[in-house]
UniProtKB/TrEMBL annotation:
Function per UniProt: Catalyzes the attachment of tryptophan to tRNA(Trp).
One GO process term, biological-process aspect: tryptophanyl-tRNA aminoacylation
A single MF term (Gene Ontology): tryptophan-tRNA ligase activity
Bias (Acidic residues) ranges: 1-11
Stretches for region Disordered: 1-31
Key words, A-Z: Aminoacyl-tRNA synthetase, ATP-binding, Coiled coil, Cytoplasm, Ligase, Nucleotide-binding, Protein biosynthesis
Presence of the UniProt keyword Repeat in the record: no
Annotated protein name in UniProt: Tryptophan--tRNA ligase
Entry annotated with the keyword Cytoplasm: yes
NCBIfam families documented for this protein: PRK12285.1-3, PRK12285.1-5
Motif 'HIGH' region, residue numbers: 101-109
Organism name: Halapricum desulfuricans
Amino acid sequence: MTRDSDPDDEPTDNRRPQTDGGAAAGADDVTLDPWGSATVDDYRKLFEQFGIESFEAVLPEVPNPHYLMRRGVIFGHRDYRPVAEAMRNDEPFAALSGFMPTGDPHIGHKLVFDEIIWHQQQGGDAYGLIADLEAHAARELSWEEIDEHARNYVLSLLALGFDPEEGELYRQSDNREVQDLGFELGAKANFSELQAIYDFDGETDVSHMQSVVTQMADILYPQLEEPKPTVIPVGPDQDPHMRLARDLAARMRYFKVTEAFASFEADPDERAIIAEAHSVLSERHPDETIRCGDAARYLENERDPDATDPNATTTDSVIMMLKEAGKEPLRPRTRFLDRNATDEAFDALIEAIDGEKRVYEAHVDAFDLARAEAEELARQVEIDHGGYGFLSPSSIYHRFMTGLTGGKMSSSIPASHISLLDDPSEGYDKVRAATTGGRETAEEQRELGGKADECPVYELYAYLLSGDDDEFATEVYEECVNGERLCGGCKEQAAELMEAFLEDHQEKRAEWEAKLDELDIDFDSDRRRRR
Ligand code: TRP
Ligand code: SF4
């Protein structure tokens, strides 16, 4: 993975204190490095470069979307549809995210806290975890520091509305199931792969690598009891972890379900060409058996290779395969490939397939089974035979907040962010001192309007201070860009709202503090490594 080369960025040295992003300008390439400085210059590039999808496209499928979704703060997702569907149908689903206890929780973390809590309120199983093993391995924090920060993260998550009776809070270091699952998942990944994804090298310590498989286990942990759609709300810097977790979930499966037309394997591009040949020929000769050789001849003689195949070599390879198969009938079917199944599970699957089927050495073809049914069956057989049957985890991505001083919001620059532990009056002062998108003079502002889109204060309104009140957020925006709002008054209002928010939040923290002992989470590590 390429690293960000913007000279203004924090060094991407793993040992540096964590910075939490902010949209720094100037970087050409989008980089996603979980332990680097999180900067995303252009969110749209993430769609093209990494296959993250725009959240806007699924928004209509989400019942009562959260304001962070409505306002585009949550801008992207991977595979969120199954989660939205479960929500609509009152079916089980889960949400989980993790926090590295490297400093105080701040208003950037609040986005993720809110996302977990919202999914919990929509009926999901909710999980908040403290990534203490990661903090110790990747950031080299001492256990004393980690304990203190862990406590603070948990208190804020609770104060914001996480229900610990319904949901689960845990520390990686105390969760034996997570560590066991991490061990198993680690058997499906090797060093070269981690090197390619995370830029690890010969100097990377083993515990850091272990923290990766631990995170993979965190992500799949909600599915240990039964597979269910699970969303992981994170910043886009965590996307490399999501891609690996999705891969590992698939690699653990007993069976892979695909579609096919004949006994040989074809990749999706090849299959599309075969499907087309099949559909043309079966329309022409509805009552005849179509054979692979017929399709080869059709492709060779009649099909314009440029029509749907920009890469003519794909068609060539398809023709070869079809010729090879010769007289074999060409028939659409659903295929179960044996990936990790035990012999008993493979036999049970064969037994469970209804209708016509054909059994091969390492796969079974079913002729009367639709793809979705086949997926369901494969998962059920896997679970009945002791497998996990994981669904690929989904993710949603939020924008990073701009720092109050411009540039990015960074834990290491106190004036750039507001800690959830800041004294309310300090929060007030930081907002009053913030950079704005305002003009040089009041006259100019009245005439041209402010630049709300570039204003960290407007962000505070949109991301936090307006809460669920879209009308208020819109009013601030409109008044700003129309020149009816001047920065002094605007910041005063924001500062007061921030002060009130912090007061309220800290009161709730204090209430939870008194009840913290009742929770099943230990803030005194008995780990002893000193650094
Ligand atoms: N790596 C995450 C961070 O840097 C923390 C984390 C650990 C996490 N496990 C997780 C996030 C599982 C989401 C899901 O903050
Ligand atoms: Fe920002 Fe408010 Fe000034 Fe507009 S009026 S630029 S939103 S501080």
